[in-house]
Write a structure and sequence with these properties.
The protein is α+β, with helices and mostly antiparallel strands. 55% of the residues lie in helices and 14% in strands. A hairpin with a 2-residue loop joins strand 1 (54-59) and strand 2.
Length: 83
């Protein structure tokens, strides 16, 4: 588990950017594309899913991750408004 909710924000941002172009990627695919360990990718994907920014879809023994564009827009609006 990550020690700080703010630790790894750069990786989580890269994951969100990656999933904009590779919708439905699995944790191992995310890890390969970012050059990080699969366990680290899973941990960050879990944080993003728990925050509601990603949806996890289980199918055929694999979990695929999808961006929740509405929630991402809400979060962006909160931060841009100075919240």
């Amino acid at each position: 588990m990550l020690k700080s909710p703010m630790g790894g924000c750069g990786i989580r941002r890269r994951i969100l950017d990656l999933l904009a172009d590779h919708e439905g990627a699995t944790a191992p695919a995310v890890a390969r594309r970012l050059g990080i360990a699969p366990e680290l990718a899973r941990a960050h994907l879990g944080v993003l899913t728990a925050a509601g920014l990603l949806r996890a879809e289980r199918s055929g023994g694999r979990t695929r991750y999808h961006r929740d564009e509405a929630r991402i827009a809400e979060a962006r609006d909160l931060f841009e408004s100075g919240w």
